[in-house]
Amino acid sequence: IDQLKPDLFLPTDLGTATYAGTFPSGNGEKSATLSVAGQNRQVALYLPSSRGASPPLLIALHGSGGTGNGAIWDSAAMTLANSEGVVIAGPQARQMNKGDWDNHGAGEVYWEPHPNTDPNTNPDLLLIRAVIDAASQAYNVDLKRIYVIGFSNGGVFSIAVAMTLNNTIAAFAE
Protein backbone atom coordinates (compact mmCIF):
# COMPACT_ATOMS: atom_id res chain seq x y z
CA ILE A 1 0.00 0.00 0.00
CA ASP A 2 2.95 2.34 0.53
CA GLN A 3 3.24 2.48 -3.28
CA LEU A 4 -0.25 3.96 -3.60
CA LYS A 5 -0.41 7.70 -4.01
CA PRO A 6 -3.35 9.68 -2.58
CA ASP A 7 -3.68 11.70 -5.79
CA LEU A 8 -4.61 8.48 -7.63
CA PHE A 9 -7.89 8.38 -5.73
CA LEU A 10 -9.97 11.35 -6.73
CA PRO A 11 -13.68 11.76 -5.95
CA THR A 12 -15.63 10.73 -9.01
CA ASP A 13 -19.27 10.45 -9.98
CA LEU A 14 -19.06 7.18 -11.87
CA GLY A 15 -22.65 6.57 -12.84
CA THR A 16 -23.81 3.00 -13.29
CA ALA A 17 -21.39 0.16 -14.00
CA THR A 18 -21.88 -1.78 -17.24
CA TYR A 19 -22.61 -5.43 -16.52
CA ALA A 20 -25.04 -8.23 -17.28
CA GLY A 21 -26.86 -10.37 -14.74
CA THR A 22 -29.15 -9.95 -11.77
CA PHE A 23 -29.29 -10.95 -8.13
CA PRO A 24 -31.90 -13.51 -7.01
CA SER A 25 -34.81 -12.78 -4.73
CA GLY A 26 -35.66 -14.62 -1.53
CA ASN A 27 -33.84 -15.19 1.74
CA GLY A 28 -30.84 -17.20 2.90
CA GLU A 29 -27.72 -18.21 1.02
CA LYS A 30 -27.84 -17.47 -2.71
CA SER A 31 -25.41 -17.03 -5.57
CA ALA A 32 -25.34 -15.04 -8.76
CA THR A 33 -23.17 -14.53 -11.82
CA LEU A 34 -22.45 -11.05 -13.12
CA SER A 35 -20.71 -10.56 -16.46
CA VAL A 36 -18.28 -7.69 -15.96
CA ALA A 37 -15.46 -6.55 -18.27
CA GLY A 38 -15.87 -9.65 -20.44
CA GLN A 39 -15.67 -12.13 -17.54
CA ASN A 40 -18.32 -14.06 -15.64
CA ARG A 41 -17.83 -13.32 -11.95
CA GLN A 42 -19.46 -15.26 -9.12
CA VAL A 43 -21.05 -13.47 -6.16
CA ALA A 44 -22.11 -15.28 -3.00
CA LEU A 45 -25.02 -13.62 -1.21
CA TYR A 46 -26.66 -13.84 2.18
CA LEU A 47 -30.14 -12.34 2.39
CA PRO A 48 -31.54 -12.20 5.91
CA SER A 49 -35.27 -12.54 6.36
CA SER A 50 -34.99 -9.61 8.81
CA ARG A 51 -33.97 -7.09 6.15
CA GLY A 52 -36.12 -3.99 5.82
CA ALA A 53 -37.31 -2.05 2.79
CA SER A 54 -33.92 -0.35 2.27
CA PRO A 55 -31.22 -2.45 3.97
CA PRO A 56 -27.51 -1.68 4.18
CA LEU A 57 -25.07 -3.65 2.01
CA LEU A 58 -21.87 -5.22 3.30
CA ILE A 59 -19.38 -6.42 0.68
CA ALA A 60 -17.05 -9.07 2.12
CA LEU A 61 -13.76 -9.58 0.25
CA HIS A 62 -11.79 -12.81 0.64
CA GLY A 63 -8.03 -13.14 0.78
CA SER A 64 -5.77 -14.59 -1.93
CA GLY A 65 -6.98 -18.00 -3.06
CA GLY A 66 -10.25 -17.60 -1.16
CA THR A 67 -13.88 -17.51 -2.23
CA GLY A 68 -16.80 -15.14 -1.85
CA ASN A 69 -18.64 -17.77 0.18
CA GLY A 70 -15.61 -18.13 2.42
CA ALA A 71 -15.49 -14.37 2.99
CA ILE A 72 -19.08 -14.44 4.24
CA TRP A 73 -18.60 -17.47 6.49
CA ASP A 74 -15.11 -16.61 7.78
CA SER A 75 -16.11 -13.06 8.74
CA ALA A 76 -19.22 -14.19 10.67
CA ALA A 77 -21.07 -11.56 8.64
CA MET A 78 -24.25 -13.66 8.71
CA THR A 79 -24.58 -12.96 12.44
CA LEU A 80 -24.55 -9.24 11.67
CA ALA A 81 -26.92 -9.77 8.75
CA ASN A 82 -29.45 -11.61 10.89
CA SER A 83 -29.34 -9.17 13.81
CA GLU A 84 -29.26 -5.94 11.77
CA GLY A 85 -30.95 -6.87 8.46
CA VAL A 86 -27.81 -6.34 6.37
CA VAL A 87 -27.50 -7.79 2.86
CA ILE A 88 -24.10 -9.48 2.45
CA ALA A 89 -22.32 -9.92 -0.90
CA GLY A 90 -19.13 -11.94 -1.28
CA PRO A 91 -17.74 -11.42 -4.80
CA GLN A 92 -15.07 -13.73 -6.22
CA ALA A 93 -11.63 -12.40 -7.23
CA ARG A 94 -10.12 -13.30 -10.61
CA GLN A 95 -7.56 -15.93 -11.48
CA MET A 96 -4.69 -13.79 -12.74
CA ASN A 97 -2.47 -14.53 -15.73
CA LYS A 98 0.63 -13.05 -14.12
CA GLY A 99 2.02 -12.22 -10.71
CA ASP A 100 1.87 -8.80 -9.08
CA TRP A 101 3.71 -6.41 -6.77
CA ASP A 102 2.47 -8.30 -3.67
CA ASN A 103 4.17 -11.66 -4.38
CA HIS A 104 1.19 -13.32 -6.04
CA GLY A 105 2.05 -15.74 -8.83
CA ALA A 106 0.55 -16.48 -12.22
CA GLY A 107 -2.62 -18.56 -11.95
CA GLU A 108 -3.46 -17.42 -8.41
CA VAL A 109 -6.82 -15.94 -7.40
CA TYR A 110 -6.49 -12.44 -5.96
CA TRP A 111 -7.80 -8.87 -6.09
CA GLU A 112 -5.99 -6.14 -8.05
CA PRO A 113 -5.66 -3.06 -5.81
CA HIS A 114 -2.62 -1.69 -7.68
CA PRO A 115 -1.29 -0.48 -10.14
CA ASN A 116 -4.60 -0.03 -12.05
CA THR A 117 -6.72 2.09 -9.72
CA ASP A 118 -9.07 3.40 -12.41
CA PRO A 119 -12.66 2.45 -11.44
CA ASN A 120 -13.62 2.53 -15.12
CA THR A 121 -11.00 -0.01 -16.28
CA ASN A 122 -9.95 -2.15 -13.28
CA PRO A 123 -12.08 -5.33 -13.63
CA ASP A 124 -12.27 -5.82 -9.85
CA LEU A 125 -13.43 -2.25 -9.19
CA LEU A 126 -15.94 -2.66 -12.02
CA LEU A 127 -17.19 -5.81 -10.26
CA ILE A 128 -17.67 -3.96 -6.98
CA ARG A 129 -19.60 -1.23 -8.80
CA ALA A 130 -21.75 -3.91 -10.48
CA VAL A 131 -22.40 -5.63 -7.12
CA ILE A 132 -23.60 -2.34 -5.64
CA ASP A 133 -25.86 -1.65 -8.61
CA ALA A 134 -27.26 -5.20 -8.75
CA ALA A 135 -27.96 -5.12 -4.99
CA SER A 136 -29.65 -1.75 -5.38
CA GLN A 137 -31.86 -3.10 -8.18
CA ALA A 138 -32.71 -6.39 -6.46
CA TYR A 139 -32.94 -5.38 -2.79
CA ASN A 140 -33.26 -1.57 -2.80
CA VAL A 141 -30.15 -1.29 -0.62
CA ASP A 142 -29.54 2.06 1.04
CA LEU A 143 -26.85 3.68 -1.13
CA LYS A 144 -25.70 5.76 1.85
CA ARG A 145 -24.95 2.54 3.81
CA ILE A 146 -22.54 0.57 1.61
CA TYR A 147 -19.73 -1.04 3.62
CA VAL A 148 -16.67 -3.09 2.62
CA ILE A 149 -14.67 -5.53 4.73
CA GLY A 150 -11.75 -7.69 3.71
CA PHE A 151 -9.15 -10.15 4.89
CA SER A 152 -5.50 -10.18 3.74
CA ASN A 153 -5.48 -9.33 -0.01
CA GLY A 154 -9.21 -8.61 0.36
CA GLY A 155 -8.34 -6.20 3.19
CA VAL A 156 -5.88 -4.34 0.97
CA PHE A 157 -8.49 -4.27 -1.77
CA SER A 158 -11.12 -2.97 0.69
CA ILE A 159 -8.86 0.04 1.28
CA ALA A 160 -8.50 0.58 -2.48
CA VAL A 161 -12.28 0.26 -2.93
CA ALA A 162 -12.99 2.78 -0.16
CA MET A 163 -10.44 5.26 -1.53
CA THR A 164 -11.44 4.88 -5.16
CA LEU A 165 -15.21 4.76 -4.63
CA ASN A 166 -15.09 7.31 -1.82
CA ASN A 167 -18.42 8.88 -2.82
CA THR A 168 -20.07 5.45 -2.54
CA ILE A 169 -18.49 3.58 0.38
CA ALA A 170 -19.65 4.70 3.84
CA ALA A 171 -16.96 2.78 5.75
CA PHE A 172 -14.49 -0.07 5.41
CA ALA A 173 -12.61 -2.46 7.67
CA GLU A 174 -9.57 -4.54 7.03
Largest sheet: 6 strands, mixed
Question: For the residues shown, what is the average pLDDT?
Answer: 88
Order of helices and strands: EEEHHEEEHEHE
Helix content: 25-40%
Structural class by sheet pairing and helices: alpha/beta
Overall radius of gyration: 15 Å
The total of beta strands comes to: 8
Strand content: 15-25%
Unreliable sequence segments: 1-12
Trace the largest sheet across and list its strands.
Answer: 1-2-4-3-7-8
Overall shape: it is globular
Tally of contiguous helical segments: 4
Distance between the termini: 13 Å
Structure commentary:
With 174 residues, the chain is α/β, with parallel strands linked by helices. 25% of the residues lie in helices and 23% in strands. It contains four helices and eight strands. The protein has helices at 68-74, 77-84, 123-139, 153-164; strands spanning 28-36, 39-47, 57-61, 87-91, 94-95, 109-110, 146-150, 171-173. It has a six-stranded mixed sheet, sandwiched between helices. Strands 5-6 form a two-stranded antiparallel ribbon. α4 links the parallel β7 and β8 (171-173). The protein starts with 27 loop residues before the first strand and ends with a strand.
Notable features of this structure?
two-stranded antiparallel sheet; six-stranded mixed β-sheet; disordered N terminus; 4 helices; 174 residues; alpha/beta; single chain
Describe this structure in a few short sentences.
The chain is built from four helices and eight strands; from the N terminus they run βββααβββαβαβ. The protein is globular. 25% of the residues lie in helices and 23% in strands.
